[in-house]
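User: Show me a protein chain along with its predicted structure.
Assistant: Here is one chain, sequence first, then structure tokens.
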Amino acid sequence: MDEKTLVTTYHESVHRLYAYVARRCGSDRGLAEDVTQETWLRAVSAWKNGNAPEHPLAWLKTVARNLILNYYRRTPMVSIEALSADWESRYLESSDTGSAQREATEALNWGLARIRPAQAALLEAFYLDGKSVRDLATEFKLTERAVEGRLSRARKKLRRKLAPLVLGEGGLS
């Protein structure tokens, strides 16, 4: 890909890429900016040798999603109770909803990084991208009933991964 085409592609897609990344990073703007930048660094490196994809934005989103998942795979997660003795007052009763949203986003991404990639992608497309069951059925070449079943199984798997974080290591408290 020549430099002019690369610059044009950047200008046409950077805002949509950032929006995609930001939805997955919650209120962690620094992480969203880092992921967007790293994604573009990888694109320039790969595309300058003539390996440009047919659909650049789709390629960029895939790379960004993998970077986010890798970040959360490496991030150790502790139970909510271990965050602090007064977590309820800090996160549930506080007017600082940004902190609560950030914690929830981190927990969600941590959980998504620990289930099968196909399950995580389906949950992300449905909940974060707002795609309907019908749209997902078309996209994945499945019946709507099959998509509903896969979504249900993916939710259960994610719930099992997140349960120790929400309920604490010892179960219900």
